[in-house]
């Protein structure tokens, strides 16, 4: 772009270099240009599934009604944390604007009429928060059929003879929380159904479309690149949070990822045995010590879609013998699972496979003992002492994405976030781990049945070892699966060679 | 620290390299070691003020009861945003643990007995979130007299014959929100007073203690250093968010500031006229253009205390003539205010002084016209067309800190966040600005009274100029004031010379 002299202090700002342009979300430079037709296709998928499952029930002039996230302030203050959109609404509309609603007509499965309902902004919005755009502008951005104001929603629905509004209400099994039922002035004029939609909608989110996969691949690529930068720059004596700073910077500056899907876990030393280290109470504040393992679980997010990747590696770049034993146990579990994953395979079996591989390595290395081999260890639940979490979870707009407890899932098995049979289109993390967690070891040693399988003197030498987790983001294809985070150095040799460079 | 060979894969983790040690918060390396006696002194100050103001009312065995922030998840998901403590509770106890309460006895003004009330954590906390520490441990960290569990709070109060519990309830005038009244099982056994405490507590937070000032100085130093790094590294063609990434990285990696007090405003081009640019709807996504002004408003936070600093500078490091005119108008306003600030000076007068300086520059430069000079412009409210926000606000644990509407404040004057008379101990931002905001200019041009003071053809050449804000964090001393962000390049010459290096 060239400027003539007269114009040098009056820069035009145009919306081609905002994050939105008609039909696209894009942060410029080398970042991914996301076609917002992704969300139009999502709406079509949803309506099509919902109508086919409830042909008999759904009457003419019915709508899906979604409520987007509200802008919130912290406690009594006017501090607004960076807004994050409610994810069902985002899945369907792709808009990161607070205080919106969305309406999707159920009259036509192939081309459902969609209406984005936005707040009417006061004139001073332009002073404080930016240009106020017209409904036509937003219509062109989000590829919806209508954009109307919240205050006109009832009139719009009445004019269209709306009968039933299907809204989301259902318990998210990971959190135990439910979405709140949408409220707006005039809602009492309609029949509101809070039951029928939830299962179909969460099921729809389980299967990732080609366009969603492009975004997920990009988020994974960003994380892989940032994880590598962190591994390259790690130095003994650094604080763990310096690695977090590096990851956040790399994925934001070079990949446009302003958010991470979850708080960064940068655990060195024995902290690597704390599964969700890094929160405000344990803020990645230890000094990284020579000889320690690092377990870094960090995932960049782009256009709302999150990656979730863990790298474990020795802080000084060279594995000790003990570190090799534990690392190779987890790597074998990881590679065995990924080799076995395909449609028709049950996730509980994959978890058991991972557990079996880990136990088998610990047995061979002499940490465990069992006259009848690994089967005996499994029967006596020795696995969860060292691998106390589930093998993985669905991943998408949420880090723990919805749908894990739907489909053919059985009631919760230990800490597994899903027990479903894999189908093509699912996107799931594979994250076996092996940890030396004081209170679990103490409990097992005190247990007369379990303790006899433990070679306690050897295990004692692993106290304060920390832990190892290897986490990849894997897409289930028609015939097998594809690991979206496969560009990471993963074997002992690859990691040592990568960190030496 | 040395390691013998046998120990190289079993790193001890000890709490000297956590962020807490007995009596201190510290993130290691060159970060500030904050003595947590700061909060003990805060409690003493609060009790002393509260007792002296309400000698007659407060009976024996009364307590101040505070409720800390609750851990929350986003919408229906289990995603927990990084916990931020409620600020009144933090001011008094310094703890960043969620789900706590605090009790402060009102029986002794000099040495009030303080009790931190913490949740009893389930055993699996140790697996997922980290070591569970004893009450004795937390007592040694936070220098309180007692640490008890939430479930024991009622028994504790009953045993101590508690009569009245004074809690916080009052409207934060910046947000219009109120804190929720604390609730716990058994609270009905006590007399709960929600009226008396709020004003005294917010007034107490207005005056910063020497220890609080050390933390604020550190947060300012971190921001100054990070702003300089951003200015050094800016390049035409970069995205605005790359500057945000740089600021966040610099202040976190080198200064241990994990949080910023507010969302970074990185506005280049005409975006610099959007006062609170940078939110999710305008996510610092423009390309920085040659010839444009940058207005970067970013403030690092350390141990809960926030800085709030704005730098305005030409993206290419060299001011144009127009940029000099606007910049020097704002700089003159800023320096005039800081030169005049001292106890006894009223903030409304400071705002008017800033406005007068800005208008005077615009008049001289021919953007404005007035037969009777600046006074006529002021009488006709021309100032708020170009400077539509208040001169500054209290700063501390909150970016818009509490107390601005207390003391001798008069009902809200335009957008001023305080109208108080300055007193020693106050900490306040000084942030005059001058912006060319389309809808305000259009409104003024359409106004028959205002338009005659505008030299419209000249002003039209400033359309899309954006804006300039210069924001410093200033402490009111006994005799004058001290600018905590004075190490920034601020004059045209300083900025040009700094950016050339």
Automatic annotation (TrEMBL), chains A, B:
Cofactor(s) the protein requires to work: Mn(2+)
Signal peptide: none
Pfam families referenced in this protein's UniProt entry, alphabetically: AMP_N, Peptidase_M24
Domain Aminopeptidase P N-terminal: residue ranges: 34-176
SMART domains from the UniProt entry: AMP_N
Entry EC no(s): 3.4.13.9
Keywords: Dipeptidase, Hydrolase, Manganese, Metal-binding, Metalloprotease, Protease
Highest taxon in the source lineage: Eukaryota
Swiss-Prot/TrEMBL catalytic activity: Xaa-L-Pro dipeptide + H2O = an L-alpha-amino acid + L-proline
InterPro entries linked to this entry: Aminopep_P_N, Creatin/AminoP/Spt16_N, Creatinase/aminopeptidase-like, Pept_M24, X-Pro_dipept-like
EC top class named in words: hydrolase
MF terms (GO), sorted A to Z: manganese ion binding; metalloaminopeptidase activity; proline dipeptidase activity
Entries under CDD domains matching the protein: Prolidase
Any one GO biological process: proteolysis
PANTHER family: PEPTIDASE D, PTHR48480
Family: Belongs to the peptidase M24B family. Eukaryotic-type prolidase subfamily.
Complexes and interactors: Homodimer.
Protein name as it appears in the record: Xaa-Pro dipeptidase
């Amino acid at each position: 772009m060239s400027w003539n002299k007269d114009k040098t202090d009056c820069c035009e700002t145009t919306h081609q270099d905002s994050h939105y342009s008609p039909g696209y979300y894009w942060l410029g430079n080398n970042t991914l240009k996301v076609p917002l037709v992704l969300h139009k296709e999502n709406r079509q998928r949803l309506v099509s599934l919902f109508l086919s499952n409830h042909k008999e029930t759904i009457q003419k002039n019915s709508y899906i009604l979604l409520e987007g996230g509200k802008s919130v302030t912290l406690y009594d203050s006017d501090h607004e944390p960076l807004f994050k959109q409610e994810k069902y609404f985002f899945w369907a509309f792709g808009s990161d604007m607070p205080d919106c609603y969305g309406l999707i007509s159920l009259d036509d499965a192939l081309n459902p009429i969609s209406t984005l309902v936005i707040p009417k902004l006061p004139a001073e919005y332009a002073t404080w928060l930016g240009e106020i755009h017209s409904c036509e502008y937003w219509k062109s951005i989000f590829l919806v059929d209508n954009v109307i104001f919240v205050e006109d929603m009832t009139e719009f629905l009445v004019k269209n003879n709306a009968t039933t509004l299907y809204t989301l209400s259902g318990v998210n099994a990971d959190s135990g929380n439910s979405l709140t039922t949408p409220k707006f002035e005039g809602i009492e004029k309609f029949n509101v159904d809070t039951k029928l939609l939830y299962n179909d909608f969460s099921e729809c989110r389980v299967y990732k479309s080609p366009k969603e996969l492009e975004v997920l691949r990009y988020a994974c690529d960003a994380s892989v690149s940032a994880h590598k930068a962190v591994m390259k720059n790690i130095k003994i004596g650094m604080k763990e949070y310096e690695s977090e700073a590096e990851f956040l910077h790399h994925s934001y500056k070079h990949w446009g990822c302003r958010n991470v899907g979850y708080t960064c876990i940068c655990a060195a030393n024995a902290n690597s045995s704390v599964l969700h280290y890094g929160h405000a109470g344990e803020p990645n504040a230890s000094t990284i010590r020579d000889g320690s393992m690092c377990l870094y679980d960090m995932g960049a997010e782009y256009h709302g879609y999150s990656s979730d990747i863990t790298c474990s590696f020795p802080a000084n770049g060279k594995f000790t013998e003990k570190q090799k034993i534990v690392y190779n146990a987890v790597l074998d579990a990881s590679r065995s699972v990924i080799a076995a994953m395909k449609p028709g395979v049950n996730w509980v079996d994959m978890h058991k496979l991972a557990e079996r591989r880990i136990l088998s390595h610990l047995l061979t290395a002499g940490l465990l003992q069992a006259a009848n081999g690994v089967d005996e260890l499994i029967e006596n639940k020795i696995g969860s002492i060292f691998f106390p979490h589930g093998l993985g979870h669905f991943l998408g707009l949420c880090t723990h994405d919805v749908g894990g407890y739907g489909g053919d899932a059985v009631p919760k098995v230990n800490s597994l976030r899903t027990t479903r049979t894999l189908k093509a289109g699912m996107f799931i993390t594979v994250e076996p781990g092996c940890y030396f967690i004081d209170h679990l070891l103490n409990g097992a040693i005190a247990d007369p049945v379990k303790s006899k399988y433990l070679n306690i003197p050897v295990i004692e030498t692993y106290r304060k070892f920390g832990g190892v987790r290897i986490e990849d983001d894997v897409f289930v294809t028609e015939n097998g699966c594809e690991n979206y985070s496969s560009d990471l150095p993963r074997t002992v040799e690859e990691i040592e060679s990568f960190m030496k460079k």
